[in-house]
Specification:
Chain lengths: 321, 451
C-alpha cells in the first residue's frame, strides 16, 4: 500500500506543491531557514548595504545635492590626494587622533582595571560611576569640556594662574583650543576621557573571568606579579583587548562630535578629522560626491585592521594544569 | 440566529466591535489607503489649499512670532490655511537639500547668502515682484543678493545682520583718544588699550564672524577675493598683501592668542565681561549686557551704558563690511507659487516690515532704502549706525554675487586660516596670500565647471 511506503519525514510535513518541491531541490533542505532570515536580511540590505553602496557610488561620481550626477571614476580620490591640502592635513590629524587615543585608552584602561580589581571599598560605586562619561551624550559632555577649555575663561588656566603650586611654578596659561600645536591633543584628551570607561569595564570583566587557580599555580612556581601580568593576564585578555581595540579604532576614526563642538576643525585646520571635513564638504558645500570620497578614504585600511584583529581574536590561549 | 464574537463593552479599548464589523472596517481603511497610495492623491475633502513656509529659528523669538502672525493674517485674508515650520539655522542646509533632492516640501523657503545661486535651478524666478517691491521701498541696498546663476532674481533679500564697530567709550576716553574712524585708528587705539589689559577682539578662527569681518578688512584695503564676474579668483594683489600685513599687526599689537579659537560667542563674552575694549559684532553684545545688567569689573557701573556702536572703520579703499544676508524664495516645485508671491508682496509692505524690525529688536536690518531710517534706530543713539550701515555692507562674493564657490571658500574658512597663519608668523604675508589664491583656485576651478 502507498501509505505504508511514506517515510517518517513525509508524515510530519504535508506533501509539497510542485513549485516548492523544485525550489527545495534547488536550495537544499534549508529553504525554510532562508525564509526565517529574510526579514533580518531585508533590514540589513535596506539600512546597511544600500546606504553603503550609495556612498561608494557617490564617491565615484560628481554628485551635488539636488543635481544630476555622473560617474567620474576615481577623480574625487585623485583630487583630494593631489590637490586638496586640507585633506592631507586631515589624514595626519585623524591618524594621530586615533593612535594616541587608542594607545592611551589601552594603557590607562588596563591600569585602572587592575586597581579596581583590587579595590575593596566602594567597589560598586566606583564601577558604576566610571560609566558616566561613556553613558552621557557626547555632545553634552563635550560642551562641558568646551567651557573648561574656553579660550577666554578656561577653568584649567584659572587654576594654573591662581592655585599653588602651579602659579609658583609659572605653568601656563595655555591656549588649549587656540594653539594649532595643542588643539588636537586637547581633543584627544577629551576622546580618551570619554572612551576610557568602556576599556576599564571591559578589561575588568576579562580580569575577573580569569580563574584564580592559574595565579595560585604561578605563585607556587615562584612567579612575580610582573610575570603573572604578562604571562597569564595579558594572553588571556587578548581576545577581549582585540575586540575593544577594534571597536575603539573604528569609533575614534569616525569621531565627529568632539571636534565639531570644541574647534569645528580649527585653528588653521589643525583638528579636522575625516568626519568633520567630510561634513563640511558634503553637506555644507553640497559636494556630496567629494564628501563621500573623504569619508570612504580610510575604508580599505579599516578593513585590513578589522581582518588583522579578528585573526588575533581567533588565536585562542588556554592553560591546563 | 447570527452568532457573534464580542469583546466586553467599554473597557480600555472603548466601544466594542464584532469580528465581522472589525473585518469590514479594516477592509475599507485598507482599500482607502491603497487607493491614496496608487493615485498619489489625498481624497478631495482633504485637499484644502495650504501655503507652507520654512524659516530658520530666529534667535529673537518675538521676530518669529510676528512673522507667524503676519502669515496667519494673510492666510485668513486669502482664505487658505497656512503652516510655518522653523528649524535651527545649522539644520536648515540639510532640510533645504532634502527638499530639493525629493522635489517636494514647502512653498516659501528661507534661502540665505549663496543658497539662491546654489539652488538656482530649483527656485522660481521672482524678478517681477523683486522690481515691484524694490520700487515701493525706495530701492534695494543689497543689489548682489538673491541672484541666480543666469542673473535672474532667485530670492528676495529679506534682512541682514550687520557688523558695526562696538567699543567701550569710557576706556577710549581714559587714554585720551577719539572714537576710531579708520582701521589705522583702530590699530593705534587698540595698541594703547591692550597695554592697559583691554585688547581688541576679532576672530581669526573657524567662526562665521571671522569670515565676515576679515572680508570687510580686505575690501577696505582695496583687496578682493574674486572679480566682478564672480568666477575669477582675484586675490593675489599688492592690496591683499597689505591687508594681510595689517591684520598681522592688529593681531600682534592689539589682540591676544585666544582669538585663534574664538567662536561667534566669545567676542560677546569678552566685551560683556569687561575685558575687551573693541569688537566688531551685531548689537547682540550690547543687548546681552543690557539683559544681564553686566557691571564693569570692580565697579557698580553698568557696562551697557559704556558700550557704543559706529559704522565699520574706513580703510585706504573706503568703508566696506561683509554680512550675512537672509533671503526668501519660492521653490519651482511649490504647489502654491502665486499665493506665495502674494504673501511676499504683503509681507514686504512698509507696515509689516516695520513691525518685524521692531519685534526683532532691531536685529533684522532692512534691505530696502526707505525702511532703513526707522524710528527704532533714529530714536536711540546706540543704534544710530544702523540707518547708514546698509550702504557699506555687502554680501559674500562681493563685488560679484554669492556663489557656490564663494560659499565653499567661506565654509572651509580659507581666509581666516591663511590670515591666522600669517598673523602667527607661520607664513609670510606674501606666502599666505599665495596659499589662499591656490586654495581658492582649486575650489573655483572645480565649481566653475559645475555651475
Amino acid at each position: 500500500m502507498e501509505a505504508v511506503e511514506r517515510t517518517r519525514h513525509d508524515l510530519i510535513r504535508p506533501p509539497a506543491r510542485p513549485v516548492l518541491r523544485v525550489l527545495r531541490k534547488m536550495a537544499g533542505p534549508d529553504i525554510d531557514g532562508y525564509g526565517f532570515i529574510m526579514p533580518a536580511a531585508f533590514i540589513m540590505i535596506a539600512l546597511v548595504v544600500y546606504p553603503f553602496c550609495l556612498a561608494v557610488y557617490f564617491s565615484l561620481s560628481d554628485a551635488f545635492i539636488g543635481e544630476e550626477s555622473q560617474f567620474i571614476g576615481i577623480e574625487n580620490f585623485e583630487y583630494i590626494i593631489t590637490e586638496d591640502d586640507i585633506f592631507l592635513i586631515t589624514i595626519r590629524n585623524t591618524l594621530l587622533f586615533a593612535f594616541f587615543s587608542v594607545v592611551f585608552k589601552i594603557v590607562l584602561g588596563m591600569a585602572a582595571a587592575l586597581l579596581l580589581l583590587k579595590a575593596l571599598r566602594l567597589k560598586k560605586f566606583l564601577r558604576g560611576s566610571l560609566l558616566i562619561p561613556f553613558v552621557a551624550p557626547t555632545a553634552l559632555t563635550t560642551l562641558g569640556w568646551w567651557l573648561i577649555f574656553d579660550p577666554t575663561y578656561s577653568h584649567i588656566n584659572w587654576i594654573l594662574e591662581n592655585v599653588w603650586p602651579f602659579y609658583a611654578l609659572g605653568i601656563g596659561p595655555y591656549h588649549w583650543l587656540g594653539d594649532p600645536d595643542l588643539a588636537l591633543y586637547t581633543c584627544i584628551f577629551v576622546n580618551i576621557w570619554r572612551g576610557l570607561p568602556f576599556f576599564i569595564i571591559t578589561i575588568l570583566a576579562g580580569l575577573v573571568s580569569i580563574p584564580e587557580h592559574l595565579y595560585e599555580a604561578a605563585d607556587i612556581d615562584g612567579a612575580t606579579a610582573w610575570d603573572k601580568f604578562w604571562k597569564i593576564a595579558v594572553p588571556l585578555l587578548r581576545p577581549i583587548l582585540a575586540i575593544i581595540i577594534l571597536f575603539s579604532t573604528i569609533f575614534t576614526l569616525a569621531d565627529f562630535n568632539i571636534v565639531f563642538v570644541l574647534t569645528r576643525g580649527g585653528p588653521i585646520n589643525s583638528t579636522h578629522l575625516f568626519a568633520t571635513y567630510s561634513y563640511v564638504t558634503g553637506i555644507s558645500n553640497h559636494e556630496i560626491g567629494l564628501g563621500a570620497a573623504i569619508s570612504l578614504f580610510l575604508f580599505p585600511i579599516l578593513v585590513m585592521i578589522v581582518i588583522g584583529l579578528l585573526r588575533l581574536v581567533r588565536r585562542d590561549t588556554s592553560y591546563e594544569l | 440566529m447570527e452568532k457573534t464574537t464580542s469583546t466586553p463593552k467599554g473597557g480600555l479599548l472603548g466601544q466594542s466591535r464584532t469580528r465581522r464589523e472589525f473585518l469590514g472596517t479594516s477592509a475599507k481603511v485598507g482599500g482607502g489607503i491603497a487607493a491614496i497610495l496608487a493615485t498619489g492623491q489625498a481624497p478631495a475633502y482633504a485637499q484644502e489649499r495650504e501655503l507652507r513656509m520654512l524659516v530658520w529659528s530666529h534667535f529673537v523669538p518675538a521676530s518669529d512670532e510676528e512673522l507667524e502672525r503676519q502669515f496667519k493674517e494673510f492666510g485668513k485674508q486669502a482664505g487658505v490655511s497656512v503652516r510655518m515650520d522653523r528649524v535651527a539655522h545649522l539644520q536648515l542646509p540639510a532640510v533645504l537639500a532634502g527638499e530639493v533632492q525629493g522635489q517636494k516640501g514647502h512653498d516659501i523657503v528661507n534661502v540665505s547668502n549663496s543658497n539662491p545661486h546654489l539652488y538656482s535651478d530649483h527656485l522660481e524666478d521672482i524678478s517681477d515682484i523683486y522690481g515691484e517691491i524694490g520700487a515701493d521701498g525706495g530701492g534695494w541696498t543689497a543689489e548682489t543678493m538673491g541672484k541666480g546663476r543666469k542673473g535672474e532674481q532667485a530670492a528676495l533679500p529679506w534682512y541682514f545682520i550687520s557688523f558695526p564697530l562696538v567699543f567701550r567709550k569710557d576706556l577710549i576716553a581714559e587714554i585720551g583718544e577719539k572714537v576710531p574712524d579708520t582701521w589705522e585708528d583702530v590699530h593705534r587705539v587698540g595698541m594703547k588699550l591692550k597695554a592697559k589689559g583691554h585688547p581688541l577682539g576679532i576672530q581669526l578662527a573657524h567662526s562665521a564672524d571671522a569670515n565676515w569681518i576679515n572680508r570687510g578688512i580686505l575690501w577696505s584695503h582695496g583687496a578682493k577675493l574674486v572679480a566682478e564676474d564672480s568666477r575669477t579668483v582675484a586675490v593675489n594683489t599688492p592690496e591683499t598683501v597689505e591687508a594681510f600685513k595689517f591684520v598681522r599687526a592688529l593681531y600682534k599689537d592689539c589682540m591676544e592668542q585666544e582669538v585663534l579659537a574664538w567662536d561667534d560667542r566669545n567676542n560677546n563674552v569678552c566685551m560683556i565681561s569687561g575685558k575687551c575694549s573693541m569688537i566688531l559684532n551685531p548689537i547682540s553684545a550690547y543687548r546681552a549686557a543690557v539683559r544681564e545688567n553686566a557691571l564693569i569689573p570692580g565697579t557698580q557701573n553698568l557696562i551697557a551704558e559704556q558700550i557704543e556702536h559706529v559704522i565699520p572703520p574706513k580703510g585706504p579703499a573706503g568703508r566696506h563690511m561683509c554680512a550675512s544676508f537672509v533671503g526668501v524664495g519660492i521653490w519651482k516645485f511649490a504647489k502654491e507659487k502665486e499665493l506665495a508671491k502674494e504673501f511676499l508682496k504683503y509681507h514686504f509692505q512698509k507696515d509689516n516690515q516695520n513691525r518685524l524690525l521692531v519685534a526683532s529688536k532691531g536685529y533684522n536690518q532692512p534691505v530696502l532704502a526707505q525702511f532703513a531710517d526707522h524710528p527704532l534706530y533714529s530714536s536711540d543713539p546706540k543704534y544710530a549706525f544702523a540707518t547708514e550701515i546698509g550702504k557699506y555692507t555687502h554680501s559674500l562674493g562681493w563685488p560679484g554675487v554669492p556663489t557656490a564657490a564663494a560659499q565653499t571658500v567661506y565654509d572651509q574658512y580659507l581666509l581666516p586660516d591663511t590670515l591666522a597663519e600669517c598673523a602667527t608668523d607661520r607664513l609670510s604675508p606674501e606666502d599666505a596670500v599665495a596659499k589662499l589664491e591656490k586654495q581658492m583656485k582649486r575650489v573655483y576651478k572645480r565649481l566653475n565647471r559645475k555651475y
